[in-house]
Known about the structure:
The chain is mainly alpha-helical. It is 72% helix and 0% strand. It has helices at 3-20, 25-38, 44-48, 54-71, 74-85, 90-128, 136-146, 155-168, 178-199, 213-216, 226-242, 247-260, 266-272, 275-293, 296-306, 313-328, 333-351, 355-367, 377-381, 383-386, 393-415. Helix 1 (3-20) packs antiparallel against helix 2, helix 6 (90-128) crosses helix 7 (136-146) and helix 18 (355-367) packs antiparallel against helix 21 (393-415). The relative contact order is 0.16.
Amino acid sequence: xxxxxxxxxVLGAAVALFVWNRLPAAVVAVLTTLALAxxxxxxxxxxxxxxxxxxxxxxxxxFVLSDGLEASGVTAWAGRQLLAHAGVGRxxxxxxxxxxGAVLAALVTPNGxxxxxxxxxxxxxxxxxxxxxxxxxxxxxAASAGALLTLSGSPVNVIVADALQEAxxxxxxxxxxxxxxxxxxxxxxxVAVLLGDRLLPDRPAAAPDDHPPAVRTVPDRLGxxxxxxxxxxxxxxxxLASGAVTAATAGLLGATAMVLTGATTAPHxxxxxxxxxxxxxxxxxxxxxxxAESGAADLxxxxxxxxxxxxxxxxxxxxxxxxxxxxxxxxxxxxxVLVVTPIALSAAEAVGIAAEPVLMLVAAxxxxxxxxxxxxxxxxxxxxxxxxxxxxxxxxxxxxxxAWLLVVVALVPVVWPLAPR
Length: 421
């Protein structure tokens, strides 16, 4: 059986297992790696190479940097500033909360931003007399948008930047994502402010005892090592932006500095790393390689290109956006992007457009996880605080996704021209 066919069978089985959701995602990724090796699509060395990939190392370091900011009190301090200045008006509270979520996501990933913003949300909602159900989904959505403000905002950004470097020798700059991220943060906030009251449920805020102490309490002051944590963060960003060292090296230097300066401790930093996420990404990198090298990506790209009229680059962007969003509502965004990236690159080559706009679009579509609570951990983190049911997400999420589609397809070709360099 051709390797392309075997790769597609493994891909289909992996997606089915992800959607079935009975096995941990990391276990599915490991099974995928083993299947690729067992079928001979990849050698054992190729199948296991993903676990030592620099992308995995860099992503692990980002979680240690995030932990340093949280452990030193920086994120809690940011939350207190919102509490002090947000007031009690719905629009002001909502914009302030979403702004906080977006900024934190750029620094500590969307999941960290949702977790850090949750205690602030509960306190602000109670003080302003607002239903937490009208605030929690917007917080998670803003965190997803804020991830597109910096390279380190999400593992997805790292994945597409690495793919661009492998495909072209170029890469995305640290703040280059912000050219798309800032408009998406603004449109996400606008949708929530204008339509949130109509599309989100109005349920009584949960009683204080329904939340653990960490959710009910926001520390009053910065940790003793907050200045060190901020200094390490700035230095790491400077290294990443300068390109003096690789992203993985810069991340490791920053993570090590967080521990050496006392912003966090080694045991605490190790606990902060979501090892399941790293196994998921490391296990699916070989699948991405197999799809690209076996010719499976070309087959899938031909199917995508087949529905797009010749020369219509923007319609290809629409098709890739919809494909990525549809898969991303049931499969983790990192897994989705790893699967879609080789397909997108093959499709771009087939229609003669550059890699940059296609990969930036895939990153944005991968972040558009608004329709289900299982689309991203950030959605799950806010679920209990908002008292949400499964079907509560899609109403506002569908409008937000539509707005993102319009912004992304209109803006991406302007910032990253479709014509190949």
